[in-house]
Every structure is written in structure tokens, then in C-alpha cells.
Input
Amino acid sequence: MSTADEVDLSHGGSRREHRVDSLVRWVFFICALLTILTTVGIILVLVQGAVTFFLDVSIIEYFTSIDWAPLDADPSFGIWPLIWGTLVITVGSALIAVPIGTLTAIYLSEYASDQTRSVLKPLLEILAGIPTIVYGFFALSFITPQIQRVFPDTGTFNALAGAIVVGIMIIPMVSSLSEDAMHAVPDDLRQAAYGLGATRFDVSTNVVVPAALSGIVAAYILAISRAIGETMAVTLAAGMRPQITTNPLEPIQTMTAYMVQVGTGDLSVGSIGYQSLFAVGLTLFAMTLAMNLVSLWIKGRYREVYR
Output
């Protein structure tokens, strides 16, 4: 083969590689664009429905009233009972998932061997793949009966069972993301601390956790955002009674549970009760978006960069 033929083959291969690269680049661009357009479409649908709702309902009543009864003969549209129920479940689940998930992450990152970690971490993440409806039935059939053994007057639906089951659900997110952040801390920091006579516990709590703090806090916020948007498990465990109560043994209703109630009911499309779905959905979207923005800010503000 002559030199000219070799040059032609080289140029031909370069052109084919360029065409493949261009095709891949456009495929990735289209996928990213579809994601953005889907998000914009969801926002537009929520905003359009919410605007129609607020044409009939005062936005002042929506954010100041503490009575939520949109399906009654004399309806009222105060969102706070639903926000309260959502916050009760979110805070309760965080009190369970944050300490357990963080301690699990520290064990996997600093104490477990590579073989143990390779087995335990996938097993832990299986919890994240269990359907939420299964968690709801687990709360009804196991968690609530255990609560009733301690507090016999507890009903079938209660906020405590909802918080516990959602806390169990988000433990994998807290532990997995936190462990990834801890695992990314350079070993040089650990070895330097060991060289100064620090124990493994000292290294874990005083070196690794502070160094990975931005990722750990981001994991907390993402898990809390997941708890805010939980639907079926909360609907089955906590009930559908919109009320502001400090008793965790009473039923409550979250924003997502209300959306399930209306979505599976017989309300006619276009009615004020049906349009309230969009107002509640937009409120929930705003809360979740705010949590994610805080997470991004914390990651950017406190992220440690190692070279």
C-alpha cells in the first residue's frame, strides 16, 4: 500500500470519527433539551391551572386561612393544614434518617473493609428500589400495630407511622450520598491525622466529616426534598384529615395525599376543587425547588477542592 493510500484511509477514518462525534453530540443535546422542555411544560401546566384557581379563590385566604375543606358545600381553601402535615412528616422522617444514615455512611466509609462495603452498600440501596406503596402497606401492617401496643388509643392512620416509614425510605439516600462524599476525601488527610496520633474515631469525626460537610449537607437536603414529595406511603400511613395538630398519634394530610384524594375522586374537570390540585402542586413544587436551590448553594459555598 502506497503512502497516498494510507493518507486517504487516515483521512477517511478521521471523517467517520468526526461524524460519529457529531451524531453523539446531537443525541446528547436533544436528550438535554427534552429534559428542559419537559420541566418547562410541567411548570406551565401548574401555573396555568393555579392562575385559574386563584381567579376564584383569594390568594390571601389561601396563605392565611387555617381551614382546608375544598370539597365541602361551603368550601374553604387555607393551605396551612396541608403544609403543616407535610412538614410534620418531613421533620419526623429527617429525625430518623439523618442520624442513622450518617452513622451508616461513617461506618461504610471509615470502618468497613472493601469487601464488606461492596456487599452492604448495594444491600442498603435496595431499600430505595422498593415501591412506595409497599412501604405504605408495611406501615399499616407492622409499624402502626407496634405503635398501638405502646399507645392503645392510636388509630389506624397517624402521623407517627407516616414519619417513621418515610424516614426508613430516605435512609439509603442519606447514607449513600454521604458515604460518597466521605469516600472522596483524600487519604492523605487521614494518614496525616493518623501520623499525629489520632484514633479512627477522631479521624472520622474531626477530619473526614468536616472535609465532606458540603456533600453531607447536600445529601440531607436532597433526602428531605424526597420526603416532602412522598405520596403513597404517606397516604396509607398518615391518613387524609387536614388539620393542624401537635399530636403525632392523630391522622394528618400532606399536600401529596390531598392530590391523590382529588385525583382518584369524581370531581369534574374544571371545578374549583379540581383546580385546587394545580395550586397545591405549584406550592409543593416551589417548596421542593427551594430545597434543591439551598442544596446547590451549600455545595458551592462549602465545597472543599483538593489537588
Residues 3-56 form one domain.
